[in-house]
Amino acid sequence: MRTVTIGVSSIEEASARALAAFRGEMQGAFISFPTVEGLWTVLTPRRWALLQALAGQEPMSLRAVARLLDRDVKNTHADVHALLNAGILDRTDDARIVFPYDSVHVDFTIGKAA
User: Residue 107 to residues 37, 80, 111: CA-CA distances in angstroms?
Assistant: First the structure.
């Protein structure tokens, strides 16, 4: 099973993971946001539902994604492109949409504001 971790990481934490990967240490798949607010801006409830529907699926057309979600194509298009721009979804050579993971692990800590 391919799992991606979506979370909040500082530039230093992301850089440390990248350096460890260059040393050959397995890191797993990460998608990091600089702030919790940034994560919630990109990953709205409707976009979480989209990821859940696409997890473990074969690549599909935008219309097929809209049908899967029982949503109109225009709104689905906007959400898919927001997730493509954030690097969460991928597009195949034949323009199909794919979420190349079977599951998502969410990881961040909220503490006292500075």
Answer: 14, 22, 13
